[in-house]
Amino acid sequence: MLAYGIVSWDKISGNMSAEANRRMAIIAVATVFFDQLTKFIVLKYLSYANEKIIIPGFFKFVHWGNTGAAWSMFNGNNELLAIVSLVALLVLFIFRQHFYTRTYPGQTSLGLIFGGIVGNLIDRLFRKHVIDFIYFFLQPRDGREIGFPAFNIADTAICTGVGLLFILSWRQEMQGQNSLAKEGA
């Protein structure tokens, strides 16, 4: 219900149990904690634009700053992406009851997404760029690197949460088709 342009708490909570909200919050806080802890370690032990090879020709830790979105798209738009992140966080929070939040996997997925968004938003607001440090690459015989874009714990949480939501959605769709097929038989 809208009251003077403000969404009421009953609408925001979406008849969700306190336990479901608590689970999502715990997962989100844990995600932010581990994201910021790993970034703190990178800041302390790896100077900017440097790297530490862990598995030669395959994996290294780097210290890179990203003012864009995934794969550095929209590079140089840190402030705009911070606003987009805040809006996405707010919209997901308000409409969270529509995302399988009555199940543990649904609560886990939204907790990961919320935590990932907040983790990168902290970087955008206080560091003016997102710290990326996990870098996988291949190094052919000619010595050049073929790399996957660097990422961080928050990025991993967002992608895992979104992937889990896709799986839940697909499973529900398949169950619905199976139910219709049984009814038609």
Description:
There is one protein chain. With 185 residues, the protein is an alpha+beta fold. The chain contains 5 helices and 6 strands; from the N terminus they run ββααββααββα. Strands 3-4-5-6 form a 4-stranded antiparallel sheet. A two-stranded antiparallel sheet has the order 1-2. A hairpin with a 2-residue loop joins β1 and β2. The longest helix has 32 residues, at 153-184. The radius of gyration is 20 Å and the shape is globular.
Please outline the helices and strands:
Layout: E1 2-3, E2 6-7, H1 9-13, H2 18-45, E3 51-55, E4 59-66, H3 78-94, H4 104-126, E5 130-138, E6 146-147, H5 153-184
Antiparallel strand pairs: 1-2, 3-4, 4-5, 5-6
Give, in order, the helices and strands: EEHHEEHHEEH
Point out poorly predicted stretches.
Answer: 7-11
* Helix vs. strand class: alpha+beta
Number of strands: 6
Radius of gyration: 20 Å
Quick structural gist:
This protein is an alpha+beta fold. It is 57% helix and 15% strand.
Tag the structure with descriptive keywords.
5 helices; 185 residues; 15% strand; alpha+beta; four-stranded antiparallel sheet
